């Protein structure tokens, strides 16, 4: 199993709490369907609002396993990504899309199973004139994202792990997951969370 897949299996809540280097993107991203999840190295895209040429360029440039992370200027006034582009992504092995903009064709994207995390839905079309920027640093929700940083996205959050810290974040996440598994065994054996955590009655858990 790849490093990205192992991070995805842990989930954002576990990694976000366990790994000091993990950064939570402070934007209201939501998956198109609750079970959607994506993880992989970021291919960063800066796209001018109202124009999706940069997205077409990014899909052509992406490596298998990449997650497209799109700075759309926070605009939700148009839908630069839909069914056709999702199919193009799937055929190139792209792992998902995270955008601070909107998308279209939501029902078809859900049927296709292509993971999309966006701020909204909008069917308004776009032009294809602005080259944008592929692979440069972007900032989403106060978090700087560089090409190759590990993205983990699920129903709880979108988090970013710097590429240099990915192995450390994985180890910390797996350690926390193992600890939580032991706690759940204790709960099933009849202990309370107060007992497991060494708390006393009246203390905040």
TrEMBL record:
CDD domains linked: RraA_family
Residues that coordinate or bind substrate: 82-85, 104
Residue sites binding Mg(2+) per the record: 105
Transmembrane stretches, start-end: none
Cofactor: Mg(2+); a divalent metal cation
Domain of life the protein comes from: Bacteria
Pfam families the record matches: RraA-like
Keywords for the protein's UniProt record, in alphabetical order: Magnesium, Metal-binding
GO MF annotation, one: metal ion binding
This protein's name: Putative 4-hydroxy-4-methyl-2-oxoglutarate aldolase
């Amino acid at each position: 199993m790849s490093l990205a897949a192992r991070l995805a299996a842990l989930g954002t809540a576990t990694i976000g709490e366990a790994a000091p280097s993990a950064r939570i993107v402070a934007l209201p991203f939501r998956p198109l369907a609750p079970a959607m999840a994506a993880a992989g190295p970021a291919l960063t895209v800066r796209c001018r609002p109202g124009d999706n040429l940069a997205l077409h360029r990014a899909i052509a440039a992406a490596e298998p396993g990449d997650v497209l992370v799109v700075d759309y200027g926070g605009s939700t006034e148009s839908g630069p990504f839909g069914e056709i582009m999702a199919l193009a992504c799937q055929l190139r092995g792209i792992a998902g899309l995270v955008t601070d903009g909107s998308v279209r064709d939501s029902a078809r994207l859900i049927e296709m199973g292509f993971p999309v995390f966006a701020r909204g839905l909008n069917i308004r079309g776009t032009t294809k004139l602005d080259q944008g920027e592929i692979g440069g640093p972007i900032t989403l929700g106060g978090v700087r994202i560089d090409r190759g940083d590990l993205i983990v996205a699920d129903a709880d959050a979108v988090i970013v792990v710097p590429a240099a810290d990915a192995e450390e974040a994985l180890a910390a996440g797996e350690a926390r997951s193992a600890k939580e598994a032991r706690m759940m065994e204790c709960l099933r054996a009849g202990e309370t969370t107060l007992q497991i955590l060494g708390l006393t009655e009246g203390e905040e858990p």
